[in-house]
Amino acid sequence: MDLSFTPEEVAFRQELRTFFTTAIPQSIRTKVLEGQHLTKEEIITAQRILNANGLAVPNWPVEWGGKDWSPVQVYIYQDEMQLNGVPSPLAFNTSMVGPVIAQFGTDAQKKRYLAEAANLDVWWCQGFSEPGAGSDLASLRTKAERVGDTWVINGQKTWTTLAQHADWIFVLCRTDPTAKKQEGISFILADMKTPGITRRPIQTIDGGHEVNEIFFDNVVVPAENLVGELHRGWDCAKFLLGNERTGIARVGTSKARLKRIRELAALEFEGGTPLIESEKFREKLAAVEIELKALEMTQLRIVADEKNHAKGKPNPASSILKLKGSTIQQATTELMMEIVGPYVMPFAESDEGDGRNETGYGPEYAAGTGPTYFNWRKISIYGGSNEIQRNIVAKAILGF
Amino acid sequence: MDFDFSEDQRLLKDSVDRLVADRYGFESRKGFAKQANGWSAEMWAQYAELGLLGLPFSEDHGGFGGGAIETGLVMEAFGRGLVLEPYLATVVLGGGIIRHGASAEQQEELVPQIVAGDLKLALAHVERHSRWNLNDVAVTAKADGSGYVINGEKSVVLHGDCADKLLVTARTGGAQRDAGGIGVFLVDASDAGVSRKGYPTQDGLRAAEVSFANARGVAIGDAGGALPVVSRVVDEAIAALCSEAVGGMGEMLAITVDYMKQRKQFGRAIGEFQVLQHRAVDMFAALEGAKSMAMLATMMATSDDAKARRQAISAAKVQIGKSGKHIGEEAVQLHGGIAMTMEYKVGHYFKRMTMIEQMFGSTDHHLAYVANSGGMF
Hints:
The complex is a heterodimer of chains A (about 400) and B (about 375).
Chain A (H helix, E strand, L loop, with lengths): L6 H17 L2 H8 L6 H13 L18 H13 L7 H14 L2 H12 L5 E4 L15 E5 L2 E8 L10 E7 L10 E7 L5 E6 L8 E12 L3 E2 L5 H9 L9 H14 L4 E2 L2 E2 L4 H27 L13 H22 L28 H7 L10 H11 L4
Parallel strand pairs in A: 1-4
Antiparallel strand pairs in A: 2-3, 3-7, 4-5, 5-8, 6-7, 9-10
Chain B lengths: L6 H17 L2 H8 L7 H10 L17 H14 L5 H15 L2 H13 L4 E4 L15 E5 L2 E12 L6 E7 L10 E7 L5 E7 L5 E15 L6 H36 L1 E2 L2 E2 L4 H27 L5 H30 L9 H13 L5 H9 L6
Parallel strand pairs in B: 1-4
Antiparallel strand pairs in B: 2-3, 3-7, 4-5, 5-7, 6-7, 8-9
């Protein structure tokens, strides 16, 4: 047992840190560290810098720009990005549709879609959830019917994140209504400009417009837009959802936020004393720090153990990374609110393009605290709610 | 970075695990508890034979040169078996003081006796009003010829009733809560100035109230500057207790999950109820957090960076305290009435976890330390 990294790993970390802190604009990194929304342009700028340096899609196959890193290297990459406020490459492109096409797509699909997804020349969004299919995703009803050389899609998707920026959407459609739940589903790509696709923004409780409803009304796409085998779209969905297990804990993000919380708590006063000198606040902060330390150690144990698990078959214990990682991230938003106190109150509507709730009242760091607290309640709901994660552990680990 | 054991560590783990599984069943334990000192002399001899009593001592003195990882392996197995013998008191606490504080001559004399199982030790440091503060020492030691004369009272001395020799923290100078002026003194338990009142503890182990009235002692190390040694040894003991607690928590979870699959109510196994499954999952998450922090404590226990070591150990103790309480209370609740009985095993793990939470600093005590230590990241 040894906690230290090899000299090569230490050098690797240093190299990434230097790159991230010099190549990615400070203004973008500060917004990320304070939990503010980025504009479309900021997200694209950051990803293109990463991609130009071969760092946007390290998880992809090498021939499509991947890195073939060890699990420890992947961990260091994610940790350093999160610690330094580097926006993660757009998940819909780099950890969802990209890996699915690389794994299940035809050569023509790989050539057509992968490079532009890596560079964010094309912005993808995810058409999975439906009004009647949330945690029970396989009960989805949006259907695609084969008509000549085309698919005709009808139905509705929801919670489609950042669809307002998207050029394309990947859609789980029911292609065999007679088959059992999981067995009649296919994974189909659609250009968002196709006639019949309409979008309705949903305003979330933080005041932002991050998510949307997408309606499909006789949307016609070419037959070649099917990815993988017909009726086997559930395989793609499972592959996609199982893809990013260790990054989901976002330990680096929470570490950076706790550091920032400690700094900011020295700037706010109560009774003439900085908040950081309140024993009660310090103990609350310490309790979260200890939970995060435990999570970081758990993540390292899982990373170190990854060599013993087949690719795509993660250590089942990684389910608790989501469980604990989500609640710790949420705890950091509560501490931030506590720091700004009354200045959590001013509210400002945000427009679709930006979503930044800048009110102009109180200290600059106060503006995002209330919205982030409300917005981050989503973390324990999306990507398989924490109750679903508990079901997974109950079945896969405890054998119920 | 790796979390694997070396070949030697795996062999050690196998043999200790097997010993506990074969010899320390719950019924056997009940028998051991009824023996003279509240534990088994036969098992103690077995530990000596297997080399467990010499594990952390240097090979020069007949030990095996093991570190915190080896101690952790033993303690985790002992946690599973709810082992009663004075291993923590003799090898980890007493032995720790000897290893870090004693002169070469003292070690040459004492260590071989520990290794052979012929010398049992206890660390007498808690006082009526000191609680967890190692520097709060009212017991006095006065130089007298080649040794010292000890006066005062020590509280809840773990396995203090059966120890052959006591290691006593006492003040040679300074005020009651000064860091300086504290020494550790080796006192023969049979000294005319020592009186002991032994008693069982909630978890089935033993402790004693010990008074010293002009008892004769020998200084171990610096008679006025031993606090860093005591602090270091207590940190090693906390790391060891973390491993023991992980062993106990793991068993509690396993027994509870198994029970949930067997126990039928309303015509089906209670483990089929999702509300109960999710509670078992939260126990699992608490166990994983405890395992992770016990590993951190083990790897940091031997660090020479006292500040980083203290912070990591305190953080681990907080995690163990919280996880132990959560898993213990839930194990009892999910079992229902049967876990309320002395004849069922789970309640005994719960009692041990509860006592561990109160040893060497409660959860709140260590949380306050971490809170005041300037941030973990």
